[in-house]
Write the structure tokens for this entry.
Amino acid sequence: METKKRTYSDLINQTKALLQHEFDLVANMSNMVSLIFEKVPGLNGTTFYRWKNDELILGPFQGRVACMHIPANKGVCGHVAVTKKSEIVPDVHQFPGHIACDARSRSEIVVPVFWPGTNRFFGVLDLDSPYLNHFDVMDRNYLEQLAPLVFGNQGLLS
Ligand code: SME
């Protein structure tokens, strides 16, 4: 538990330091998924999807080739695009309509991301693990703090 807190608090500090002065979203999403993939143990994928023309479109990611278009309400990411609430999926095979981009994935967490200072939906951050039940409420709380840092200083202020 302490190790996980330490991992995320270091990750948040490193992310702030790296992204705060950069406003290019592709650059920031790219480095954020890279940092998460490197620092959070037990992942096989870390992916940004952006909300564009009423669907999710693949953004910067780490891991195997991923689905490029996800309609609203399809799979875990599409579900979060509708509910706008984080979803922890302990066993992806039990989630109706789960999209298996990488057959190794067994559990998943998806958090919604909003444009800074608004409730306008930007997209989702999706973490996949080859282990069952890999994510918990602590992951969710930290990832919800981490994701808005993708907007640089604007994310820090909101
Ligand atoms: N498993 C996700 C699709 C995205 S990939 O895992 C990168 C889902 O069901 O929404």
DSSP finds five helices and six strands in the chain. The longest helix spans residues 2-19. The helical segments are 2-19, 25-39, 75-83, 137-146, 153-157. Strands lie at 45-52, 55-63, 69-71, 87-89, 107-114, 121-129.
